[in-house]
Design goal:
9 helices, 43% helix
Length: 242
Amino acid sequence: MTDPSTELAPLRRQVADACRVLAARDLAPGYLGHVSLRIDARRVLVRCRGPQERGLAATSARDVHLVTLDGEPGAPGELQGWIPPNELPLHTEVLRARPEIAAVVHAHPESVVAADLAGLGIRPIVGAFDMPGTKLAHGGVPVYPRAVLVRNRTLAAEMVAAMGGRPVVLLRGHGLTSAGAGVPDAVLNAVSVERIARLSLAVVSAGGRLQDVPEADMAELPDLGGAFNHDTAWRHELARLA
């Protein structure tokens, strides 16, 4: 890459849009949280902190910078006045361990934190209401039980071990980490998990009891394909920003 500032411009915008989607969906309502995208074997684009930090809702492409997996500038001039997130290892250890993953999201959705602390796991309690989310929950959403800032490779490796091969792991008293083959996948997984957590809290608050969708009904949920589940859903999220 001879000129990362121009060649990577569309990908910087995609990462920035992802941050704004997280904020718009209340998964990262303040200034905490970040999104990364693998560029090659040793570098990622990641939302960094700048001198005029305004929060994820105000993220623009200028907040997204190319860094190495060790947090060094990924190209000349990339980090002048910008600092990678303290929890960069949370992203890079997922990327080191799982070659099928290209994008990582870290967010602090209050409903996810509250549901987990209340002992409510992310379960397939809905069906056609959110089919991708239901299937994700049916496969299991593990929990990393330490309420720590995942700021070094040792802690990040613990989180990755708890995550296993799943696309999302909850971080107790902290938030969640979501991964995917691309930025839209990682963000939409996080949105689905937050939606189920919010519904779970509402059901329990109303005096109800959580029940998983029967296996017979799970078997009837069709796979509508990535063009609908992800492409259309992602366009919808971007349209909401407008």
